[in-house]
Amino acid sequence: QVQLVESGGGLVQPGGSLRLSCAASGSIALINHRAWYRQAPGKQRELVARIFSSGDTDYADSVKGRFTISRDNAKNTLYLQMNSLKPEDTAVYYCNLEQRYSGVNYWGQGTQVTVSS
Fold this sequence. Notes:
The chain has strands spanning 2-7, 10-12, 18-26, 31-39, 46-52, 57-59, 67-72, 77-82, 91-99, 105-107, 111-115. The chain is an all-beta fold.
């Protein structure tokens, strides 16, 4: 079993920055990838950024060049640095982890990010 706890959301003005964190605990020894998703009101949940066990990353086109995903393996923590935020980035952001072999996905409870003046 895996537990994921996000933090770092909040209200920020357009053009501002936030850093999200996701602390993992439990059976996290073998992982395919960790990722950030987001879901805006009335929209489907979408992938924002993903980091694989190899360290490779990929990003949604809408956030490329503005967001950076990273991890601290010693702390079992995933980060999302969000710069140049736009109102359309407003959403609940969810941390995700996919276990290797089983393919089981775990989710955090979500953290609200609101970009507004």
